[in-house]
Amino acid sequence: MNDDLKALVRTIPDHPRPGILFRDVTTLLLDPWGLRQSVERMAASVPTRPDLVAGIEARGFTLGAALAVALGCGLLLIRKDGKLPGETIAEDYALEYGTDRLAMHVDACAPGARVLVVDDLLATGGTALAAARLVRRAGAAVGGARFLIDLPDLGGGDRLRAEGIAVEALMTFPGH
């Protein structure tokens, strides 16, 4: 599956701790052809143009902005809590060693808007699920989620699909 793009992803062993194979997409993003192909292929996987692409901080901003331009729609920023000015809504989610919190502006998307959630990597699905819940709390509909990489062994795709979210990734890697 997209082996040409997979070849541009650097694997860093034992990061952030022993036994982990970290899939580093920055090497793919540095490559003009790889970046263009990634965006074009992700855009081609979207059957219906959304009203907004929700990019999750931080690499999801890069992909989300490029995908929003390619699809002809707006960009919704999903940020770490405390980073946005103005009134926000926030959602907690579980991490391996605790919890974190994502936020978006309370008026960032209109009720009934169709939103595509985008990030670089899908692992356990906690971050993407928190982003989707924020969008839904605003009254919008999550039309799907797109990722460069899925680590299916960690179950994130299954968690999102259980919430009724269609998931696609350009590449999959085994393990964690």
TrEMBL record:
E.C. number: 2.4.2.7
Q: Main localization of the protein?
A: cytoplasm
Which Gene3D superfamilies does this UniProt record tie to the protein?
Answer: 3.40.50.2020
The record places domain Phosphoribosyltransferase at: 47-141
Broad enzyme group:
transferase
Q: Which domain of life is it from?
A: Bacteria
Q: Which GO terms describe its biological process?
A: adenine salvage; AMP salvage; purine ribonucleoside salvage
One molecular function GO term is: AMP binding
Keywords from UniProt, A to Z, are:
Cytoplasm, Glycosyltransferase, Purine salvage, Transferase
Compartment(s)? Cytoplasm
Pathway involvement of the protein, from the record: Purine metabolism; AMP biosynthesis via salvage pathway; AMP from adenine: step 1/1
What is one cellular component GO term in this UniProt entry? cytoplasm
Catalytic reactions on record? AMP + diphosphate = 5-phospho-alpha-D-ribose 1-diphosphate + adenine
Indicate the quaternary assembly: Homodimer.
What does the sequence similarity comment in the record state about its family?
Belongs to the purine/pyrimidine phosphoribosyltransferase family.
Q: Which PANTHER family match?
A: ADENINE PHOSPHORIBOSYLTRANSFERASE
> Can you say what this protein is called?
Adenine phosphoribosyltransferase
